[in-house]
Design brief:
The protein is of the alpha+beta class. The strands form four sheets. A six-stranded antiparallel beta sheet has the order 2-3-1-9-8-10.
């Protein structure tokens, strides 16, 4: 944890347990506080640096940087860099008096005297997508750095102001000729291996989350290549029947093949519900369902001496899984090519009267129609298009009606993320949108949950040089098959076919009726009814996925607001859970 303030007057002295340094800067007071778990202050002749790294206690911090703050006294500037390797949140705020505040946690900003208020404008976006696009946060007048970006702050005339914000520099260079898959996979292996080999000083304290999928299996094999490992860990939802628990089956079968002692951490529904409220308090924002599992796994499932955890989050996005691959497959389907061709469409319409009469299913027809809106960059508008359907698995109409908003209101921050890349490939745009919104949100939450249990989370698949290299590979190579490049890598590491070819599971709720009345989350409704009335909550209790996920988001939003905006005690909310 860290806190940096540059103010015209002293801040409340609430940081006795932190290592604190104070400087005079242009008649302002600069205070930097760290807990020296991940963060450490380095005093220098021209100012100081703060570095967050899992290696900070070993003197090798430059090998794996999560965050770097540099204060230059000669220029009276502060430069802040957020790495792609970590989900570490970096919040910042400028107030009307020219004061500047920056921290890894909202709670530290509150302790520094900042009034914490709700950013009501982003709540519809959260309820529709389960996360919000940076630099926006759930907190009024508080921003956060986008992964891979640099914030430069100038101190001038007793005021702090933004000098510049530089976002992640996507390498525009493309591979101008076909390279063999062997060359490509070797390069990717080098990037991943470099990240993991940097853990040599602390490898005895490190482990890999092994879900049994291809992504985590590759990281496991690379780790095993350099360091001894005997145990692997995973978990799953407690309220699902054994036949529904695909995650457990995948993890156990993979660990058995690799000869590992696997601990599948099993929790009760009661532990999950209490853990949900605890995790929201720690993350300081609403959660997606699987986040609570990470919290419980870090707290109770992984030994205390394993304090660095390698996580495969982000591989799907970077290597073209999920919606990106699905879009590629559809666009290369002969039926789509017919529908894309306006002349053929008119001809077939004249001959058959209705395109659906030639055997296209209604839902495929409608999807292909929607996909036409992304073929021309001029149609990638802020109000319409396929892009805004990605992740929109909620009750859209309810969100619009309840908050009196429209599509443009909800997606404006997401549009800002992709606007600089609007002329790029649609696959790249989808990658950027997912990487800097969805993945960054997940990584931020997982990192905070880990830190609470003194565990550091590392995400090798989103390392900046690796991201740029993978994005330089032609899409027709990456998307030829589902995660084509990683499949070749997996075979090179002798990962068995049953892991490579089995359907992706993901940590999803497989139980069909989880959101119904008297289901596992019924005890959470009393915690939410002071924020959103019970009638509206009950309307969303359904087996229908869109309503069910809206139900989940409502519960999370209400609990978050009570804890983080109203500043109610965690113990009070826990006491209200009646299981």
């Amino acid at each position: 944890m860290f806190l940096l303030t540059v103010t015209n007057s002293t801040i409340p002295n609430n940081f006795q347990s932190f290592n604190t340094n104070e400087f005079k800067v242009n008649s302002m007071i600069l205070i930097i506080c760290t807990d020296e778990f991940l963060s450490k202050i380095f005093l220098e002749p021209d100012g100081f640096s703060v570095i967050e790294s899992p290696l900070v206690l070993y003197g090798n911090q430059e090998d794996l940087i999560f965050l770097k703050i540099k204060y230059d006294d000669t220029k009276q500037e502060i430069n802040i860099f957020k790495s792609m390797l970590s989900g570490r949140s970096i919040y910042y705020r400028f107030d009307s008096n020219g004061n500047f505040y920056c921290s890894s946690h909202i709670s530290l900003l509150r302790s520094a005297g900042i009034k914490i208020e709700e950013n009501t404008t982003v709540i519809p976006e959260y309820l529709m997508y389960s996360y919000i696009a940076p630099p926006e946060t759930f907190y009024k007048n508080i921003k956060r750095l986008v992964a891979g970006s640099r914030l430069s702050v100038r101190i001038l005339n007793k005021k702090c102001e933004i000098k510049s914000i530089k976002y992640f520099d996507f390498n525009k260079k493309r591979l101008d000729h076909f390279q063999s898959m062997e060359i490509i996979t070797n390069e990717i292996s080098k990037y991943l291996s470099t990240t993991i080999k940097n853990l040599k000083i602390i490898h005895g304290k490190s482990t890999v989350l092994l879900s049994g999928g291809m992504d985590s299996s590759i990281l496991f094999k690379i780790f095993q290549k350099y360091f001894p490992i005997e145990n692997t860990y995973s978990t799953g939802y407690p309220f699902e029947a054994p036949s529904e628990n695909i995650e457990k089956e995948y993890a156990l079968s993979a660990s058995e093949y690799f000869g590992m002692k696997h601990k599948y951490a099993k929790f009760t529904t009661k532990e999950y519900l209490f853990g949900l409220v605890e995790a929201i308090s720690i993350a300081e924002e609403p959660l997606q369902p699987h986040a609570t599992l990470f919290h419980l796994l870090f707290k109770k499932g992984i030994p205390r001496d394993k304090n660095l955890i390698i996580c495969g989050q982000g591989a799907d996005t970077i290597f073209g899984g999920g919606s990106i691959n699905e879009l590629f497959v559809i666009r290369n389907n002969w039926k789509y090519k017919i529908i894309k061709n306006n002349f053929l469409m008119k001809l077939l319409g004249f001959i058959f009267g209705n395109i659906r009469q030639i055997g296209l299913m209604d839902n495929l027809y409608m999807l292909l129609r929607k996909l036409q809106s992304i073929e021309d960059v001029n149609k990638r508008s802020i109000e319409d298009g396929f892009l805004w359907k990605l992740g929109e698995y909620k009750d859209v109409d309810w969100v619009y009606d309840y908050f009196n908003v429209n599509k443009k209101d909800v997606i404006k921050h997401r549009f800002n993320i992709i606007e600089p890349h609007i002329t790029d490939s649609i696959y790249k745009i989808m990658t950027i949108l997912d990487l800097f919104c969805h993945i960054q949100n997940i990584q931020s939450i997982i990192s905070k949950l880990g830190e609470k249990q003194r565990k550091i989370i590392l995400f090798p698949y989103t390392e900046s040089e690796l991201v740029n290299y993978v994005l330089s590979i032609p899409w027709k190579i990456k998307l030829k098959k589902y995660k084509n490049v990683l499949s070749h890598m997996a075979r090179a590491y002798n990962i068995p076919e049953f892991i490579i070819t089995r359907p992706k599971a993901g940590i999803t709720i497989n139980l069909k009726n989880w959101a119904l009345k008297n289901g596992p989350f019924e005890p959470m409704i009393p915690l939410a009814i002071n924020i959103i009335n019970e009638e509206d909550i009950r309307k969303m209790q359904s087996i229908e996925p869109r309503k069910a996920m809206t139900f989940w988001n409502i519960l999370n939003y209400a609990i978050w607001k009570r804890l983080c905006i109203n500043n109610e005690s965690l113990d009070v909310l826990l006491s209200e859970i009646k299981v």
